[in-house]
Amino acid sequence: MIAIIDYNAGNISSVQNALNRLGYESIVTCNKEEILKSDRVILPGVGEAGTAMNYLIEFELDGFIKGLKQPFLGICLGMQLMCNSSEEGDTKCLGIFNSKVKRFPPKEKVPHMGWNNINALKGGLANEIETNSDVYFVHSYYAELCNETSSQCDYILPFSASLEKDNFYGTQFHPEKSADIGEQILKNFLEL
Amino acid sequence: MLKKRIIPCLDIKNGRTVKGVNFIDIQDAGDPIELAKGYVKQGADELVFLDITATIENRSTLIDLVQKIGRKINIPFTVGGGINSLKDASKLITAGADKVSVNSSAVKNPQLIKDIASKFGSQCVVVAVDTKLIDDEWMVFTKGGRIKTERRTLDWIKQAEALGAGEILLTSMNHDGTKSGFAIDITQQANNSVDIPIIASGGAGTKEHFSELFQTGISAGLAASIFHYGEIPIPELKEYLAKQNILIRK
Fold first, then answer.
1. Are the Cβ atoms of B123 and A177 closer than 8 angstroms?
2. Whether CATH 3.40.50.880 fits A2-190
3. Which residues contact B125 (CB under 8 A, 6 or more apart)?
């Protein structure tokens, strides 16, 4: 069973649909018992960092998430919440990844919206993913490059397209909306 | 590098596609899901579904359809037509739409843009703008182009951005249906006026029209009939654009 953490951050049905297409059942929950019992945990993400963090704190999920041992995937805002901090709402985040989340300088269109290539994805999600594969991004804030960056993307500046540390994974892009490549990345996570 | 987006638009009436399509391997050209799958296979970068009936009795049919599309399609899709309230938008987004497109209702009540953006994020809100050149001024039209408003297009686009729109879908009524090319002039002006992406719509007739559009810096082009009738297969279009050194997703 896959637990999708429900923290009132917009639409999560696309993640659930993608898991269904891959043949996995999932539950949407913010119940600790249920999350602990599950084989995989996904922190999905659209919304605003400050509001989302407050919600995690309110449900006492902040420290709890850091202690989880099963493979854990944060998507988009979910990944950003796993970093040290975010400029969005000047928010202190979970601090799993040693990266800061900043707003794109307005040198080009913001949000960064559409298909962009990630180079040389490495680590647990990389199986059968060619370098420079195009995936779908929608975001106005980015995570800086750091030691835990597992692939990078370039828009206005180079940033972390994905992060990985121990059992924790994060993708800035939306694998659930990134066609066959996205499904392969999700599959890699589910088969870890 | 960010790729240019090619976006087919499907018109929906009572849960069925209105215009026929000539995909070879499709059994039922009126089935939006079959069509959408066909477009995904061809390499469409996003899809737009526009409900052109959008009467109250048809809303549940549409929501049912959106749920089915969400289950089958692994690229982003936008749903528009008849979204008059946050509640309408919520239903579609909860059913699986990645974005909703608002047009006349937002002109009438601009707060709607802010309401949807606050609840679901700006990336969910596409503001569709129908524009027409009247006495050297690009003006906003509503109700499917039937009603002229007093709003100037560029002013409205800037207001929509300030209210939280994530993208503008700009259709030139002077160009729509002519197959004579996109309205480069107003689209480029719009693009320079706001920081959010502009999707150009109306007038696509040839591969060259897309090339011309993308060379101006616009990031996305939408078309219906040329894709529906198989006049320009998406793989052929993408191959052509790649040869012009335009960045596209393969």
1. no
2. yes
3. B99, B100, B102, B113, B116, B117, B164, B165, B166, B167
